[in-house]
Amino acid sequence: MPFTHTLQVIGHRTIDAVWRIGLATRFFALTLMYSGTSFRRFHLIIKELFSTGVMSLIIIIVAGLFVGMVLGLQGYETLQRYGSESALGVMVALGLVRELGPVVAALLFASRAGSAMTAEIGLMKATEQISAMEMMAVNPIARIVAPRFWAGVISMPLLAAMFSAVGVFGGYFVGVIQIGVDEGSFWSQMQAAVDFREDILNGVLKSFVFGTVVTVIALFEGFDAPPTAEGVSGATTRTVVTSSLAILMLDFVLTAIMFRGN
Amino acid sequence: MVEISDLHFAYDKRAILKGINMSLQKGKLIAIMGSSGCGKTTLLRHIGGVLKPTKGYVKISGQVIHELDQHNLYAMRRKMGMLFQFGALFTDMSVFDNVAFQMREHTTLPEELIHDLVLMKLHAVGLRGTQKLMPSELSGGMARRVALARTVALDPMLIMYDEPFAGLDPISLRVVGDLIRRLNDALGATSVVVTHDVQESLKIVDYVYFMENGTIAAEGTPEEIRASDKAFVRQFVHGEIDGPVPFHYPGGDYRQELNLSV
Q1: What do you get for the CA distance between the two ends of chain B, in Å?
Q2: pLDDT digit string (tens) for A214-257?
């Protein structure tokens, strides 16, 4: 009996998970389908860019600076063992542009902007604002979801770029100003080794994918949240957990595809 | 104006509406009363085309609502207004923007004209001075009045009110009741008020339907309702604790549950 019960529970959860993936995909397709209004009235996207992008800047800049400083310290510690401390600039820049920039910025974005989007839309649903909009013959996916989606997709690569840029400066501050690594080799080796297409464009592509995934998860969880306090809090938690796992898993897949054989 | 014929609706297998017949005449203010869970709000959602009946239909201006596609349903909803229980004002917009919302979404009126129209609507509910406030800065009664101004923003021909008196102090209650009557007469609209508040609504409405357990238990003018000798209507109108609507929810034997020996 307990065995059959366990099987039943696993079966139920699997079916439920597949259902939710299906619903989220349909939701994503509808969001794309109803995106026309957002582009015709671009001020709707700009308003959301402020709350998702600009309001996330502080956390991204501070985190980027510290991550870059840690990279500078750890990188110097390892490289000086082999007498290669002049390659510190390359290590910091590649680490940030290829990996840490897109990934850490996306994790912070999921916690800061993603959770806020879920909570906002969940509360709009709980207070009947979404029903009210539908009764006013205004499609909530076109008016509420699509502008937020595009704001997330646009702001994520910009935030990741900001994270990497500030991180490089953090590495420079620790490596060159504090420790005394040669400034010329720090910059020139970085300039020579970082490839625009291979490294920077791939990093931007990663952050674009992460931005899309995090924003869709956040908006879907908010839209799908049961209209209660408990429902909204559960949806907010799910947004952060699911997006974080999705970012890390997708990062592996994308890295495997992009940098294979390099 | 609105014709409801043999309307049935069930959630899964639980029947909520069991054959409702109503005829709502143009220019009239109609109340639908009944205890909690009797199907009043479900009926309102059928009129707004949010739910589809399992049998029967709602016809507005000769069109069967549940047979309309999304485009035509939205076209129909532009002629409707609905006031939600707690107003459902958009919390990220000011009072002015809330009232202007439908005008901006559905018309190409210049902003100067929208400005004047919004001020006229707000003036009609006595809240012109609140135009710059956010919904969080309003009291419950004021939020309900702003929502009322938003509901009538495009001069609808059918206005629905879902529990408009819930949670209001006596002054706000009188103000909202008076506004519902005056706006209906000024617009020449048809209004449907779903409410528990017998005394306030009997003062303002033209006709009353009493719902009980998914059916129409009684109907008539306010005078007929006050004079009714039906036990259910008497219990409801006079707020008697026990009657056809029992005080006790059905349960097991009381003595047995308290483990008392007979």
Answers
A1: 61
A2: 999 999 999 999 999 999 999 999 999 999 999 999 999 999 99
| Chain A CB within 8 Å of residue B91 CB | yes
Q: A128, B90: Cβ pair inside 8 Å?
A: no
ipTM confidence: 0.83
The structural domains of chain B, with segments of one domain joined by +, span 2-86+156-245
Residues belonging to chain B: 262
The CATH code of the domain at B2-86+156-245 is: 3.40.50.300
pTM of the model as a whole: 0.86
Are the C-beta atoms of residues B87 and B123 closer than 8 Å to each other? no
- Pick A137's closest partner by Cβ from B86, B89, B106: B106
- Per residue in B214-253, pLDDT (tens digit) is 888 888 898 888 888 887 777 877 777 777 766 777 788 8
> Which chain A positions have a beta carbon within 8 Å of B102's beta carbon?
136, 138
Return the closest-CA partner of residue B202 out of B181, B188, B231, B185: B181
Would you give the DSSP letter of residue A6? H
Domain ranges in chain A are 28-255
